[in-house]
Write a structure and sequence with these properties.
2 domains; about 0% strand
Length: about 120
């Protein structure tokens, strides 16, 4: 992968990170965590306990997904800085540019990813 491609992926990852952080701030109502926002959201609700529990579980699952995604972006940016971005963590071969364009956080080449999922 050449420097121009690396720079393009860095810009894409940084853009995703900024967008995700903005989304988190909007959904959480500022700097509070989703759990705190959820607690405030459900305080005093007249909904059934089952409905509130389901909604709370959904919000916590979304928080976990967002945290995982943010960690994946940060890890990809760290790999870029370390000069190993685009190398498969299993076989060490280059991850195809098309795969990275589709998923810039990818850790594995297609073959190794299929083996890992298999």
């Amino acid at each position: 992968m050449n420097k121009t491609q690396q720079h393009a992926f860095k810009l894409q990852l940084v853009g995703e990170r900024i967008a995700l952080l903005a989304q988190l701030a909007q959904l959480r109502g500022g700097e509070v965590g989703r759990a705190q926002a959820s607690a405030a959201h459900f305080a005093g609700k007249e909904d059934s306990q089952a409905q509130m529990s389901t909604e709370r579980d959904l919000e916590l699952a979304l928080d976990e997904h967002e945290t995982v995604t943010l960690n994946q972006i940060d890890a990809a940016l760290a790999r870029l800085e370390a000069g190993v971005y685009g190398e498969c963590i299993d076989c060490g071969e280059d991850i195809g540019v098309a795969r990275l364009e589709a998923n810039p956080k990818a850790l594995r080449c297609i073959v190794c990813q299929q083996k890992a999922e298999g």
